[in-house]
Design brief:
Blueprint: H1 6-28, H2 45-57, E1 65-69, H3 77-92, E2 96-100, H4 104-109, E3 113-117, E4 126-131, H5 143-148, E5 164-173, E6 176-185, E7 188-192, H6 199-214, E8 240-244, E9 252-256, H7 269-273, H8 275-284, H9 287-292, E10 316-321, E11 324-330, H10 341-344, H11 353-357, H12 361-367, H13 372-383, H14 400-412, E12 420-425, H15 433-448, E13 452-456, H16 460-465, E14 468-473, E15 482-487, H17 489-493, H18 501-507
Parallel strand pairs: 1-2, 7-13, 7-14, 9-12, 12-13
Antiparallel strand pairs: 3-4, 5-6, 5-8, 10-11, 14-15
Helix pairs in contact: 2-3, 8-13, 12-13, 13-14, 14-15
Length: 511
């Protein structure tokens, strides 16, 4: 072709060079395991964000302001280093980057830090510091500073001994090929591995499916946007393999994921946790409510007798605009309270039911100081770091991390039953290091109540606090899907084949 059609050869060379440059960027961002025909809906949010970043890296634009919201979410520390190299490349050609981030490695890499706090919700919103990273340590009110400059290697507590083992044999799914793996019971296990190595395929899909079927409640596992579903299986294709041992000690299987707790504003924090049932009972027990013969159902915004007839308990109405999209506005009848005037006349300790729904968890804790049934739910919500949320905050306004912690808080209320297997997929996503510490405390509480906790996560602090670590890899896609190392965090940190080991060693105390 070169001799007969040199101009065609030149065109092919230019196209090939451009393709190779684009592929190099994808490889640098840790996306080499994705197949070219992979459909966009099956990609995780983290993968989509890195793909968008890749398009900007190869665009050669300069003088652009980039705003990124937690680009390291769902990334293994090794992938985070690749992300930082890409961000450095964008900065080097004359761009400005604003990054919202909790990952301390990314924060340390920044040239300028703006720390917002000191707490969340109404207790936050204040600029505590704005300047170079090294100056943040002087800000005593900053929770970020206490973690950013903390000495690595905090002493670990005593590792709990397993009560038994769940053994998976011959697991074949996605990029898992005839994998054998054992999970300890009665302890907390973290499953690690680089992005796309097969963690979710093994735990959130294979393990959940096998245990669910063994308990008589088959779990339908779909090939959706799981980050570690590196090689998609056929839709509806069952996982191959078997499970043995330890099933007699498991009575319940609970998946705590980041899916919304409800898809409409009618679902909120109070209704999901069951707290609202106790609140409505308190209102129904007031003298005025008894006099009017109002039962607890009267104080539900889903029941016609108590809610506003115009908005039907929504608190807002849809306004159709000519030639413009419809918008939602506060209901002109109830002004967003959701209830009719008769229901709002009933007061408990000076507040009506709508005003109680407007309380934050922290305020409600003080308000219901003489209501132990309500306080038991509020106590757990406070412990998982959700004191800033309002009781009536619609589910549609909650982040994935908030929804997951609400589910966890709901489960903690019944954790004393024991015998449950909890499976969590990346619960630290979007959490500040202080929130990660609270999460670890709650997961330990589940274990101490006689349950088993298995977590898929990249956070090394969580892995170091676990009793057992399973590392999958060594790479992603076809290069992953194998058990690289398993054992206590100290044992995995010494593995020579694990890409997780050096990062895990950083957060463990010196031996």
């Amino acid at each position: 072709m070169r001799k007969e059609h040199p101009e065609k050869a030149m065109v092919v060379q230019r196209i090939a060079a451009d393709l190779c440059r684009r592929m190099d960027v994808l490889l640098d961002l840790g996306l080499g395991y994705l197949t070219l025909e992979r459909s966009t809906p099956t990609l995780s949010p983290g993968e989509l964000q890195r793909l968008r970043l890749a398009t900007q890296v190869v665009s050669n634009l300069f003088g652009v302001v980039y705003v990124m919201d937690e680009p390291s979410a769902g990334l293994h520390p090794a992938d985070t280093e690749a992300l930082l190299r890409a961000l450095d490349g964008l900065k080097a050609v004359g761009n400005t980057l604003f990054v919202v981030e909790h990952e301390l490695d990314v924060v340390r890499h920044a040239d300028w830090i703006v720390d917002v706090g000191p707490a969340a919700g109404e207790l936050g919103g204040e600029i505590l510091y704005s300047g170079p990273p090294e100056g943040l340590w002087k800000v005593e009110r900053s929770e970020t500073a206490s973690h950013l400059f903390a000495e690595a290697g905090k002493p670990a507590g005593r590792r709990r001994e397993p009560d038994g083992w769940l053994r998976l044999s011959g697991v074949t799914r996605n990029n898992l090929r005839d994998v054998d793996c054992k999970f300890p019971l009665g302890v907390m296990t973290t499953v690690t591995g680089i992005s796309g190595s097969g963690k979710s395929s093994l735990v959130s899909q294979a393990l959940v499916e096998f245990v669910g079927e063994a308990l008589g409640a088959p779990v339908r596992v779909e090939n959706d946007a799981e980050e570690d579903a590196a090689m998609e299986a056929e839709p509806g294709l069952p996982t191959q393999g078997r499970i043995e041992g330890g099933l007699d000690s498991i009575r319940r299987l609970i998946e705590v994921d980041q899916k919304p707790i409800g898809r409409t504003p009618r679902s909120n924090l109070a209704t999901y946790t069951g707290l609202f049932d106790h609140v409505r009972s308190l209102f129904a027990a007031t003298p005025e409510a008894k006099k009017r013969r109002y039962d607890a159902g009267r104080f539900s915004f889903n029941v016609a007798k108590g809610r506003c007839p115009r908005c039907e308990g929504e608190g807002f109405v849809m306004v159709e605009l000519l030639f413009l999209p419809s918008v939602y506005a506060p209901c002109p009848t109830c002004h967003g309270t959701r209830y009719n005037p008769q229901t709002l006349e009933i007061r408990y300790r000076g507040k009506n039911i709508s005003q109680v729904l407007g309380l934050t968890v922290a305020d409600a804790w003080d308000f219901f100081d003489n209501a132990p049934t309500v306080r038991s739910s509020l106590k757990v919500l406070r412990e998982v770091g959700l004191s800033y949320l309002r009781l009536g905050q619609p589910a549609t306004e909650l982040s994935g991390g908030e929804a997951q912690r609400i589910k966890l808080a709901t489960e903690l209320q019944r954790a004393q039953k024991g015998g449950a297997l909890y499976v969590l997929d990346e619960p630290t996503t979007g959490l500040h290091p202080s929130d990660v510490e609270r999460l670890i405390a709650q997961l330990n509480a589940l274990v101490e109540s006689g349950n088993t906790v298995i977590v898929v996560d990249h956070d090394m602090t969580l892995a170091a606090a676990s009793d057992w670590v399973i590392d999958i890899g060594p790479g992603a896609g076809d290069e992953g899907g194998r058990i690289v190392a398993n054992g206590t965090p100290e044992q995995v940190a010494l593995s020579g084949n694990s890409r997780t080991a050096p990062y895990l060693k950083r957060v463990l105390p010196p031996s």
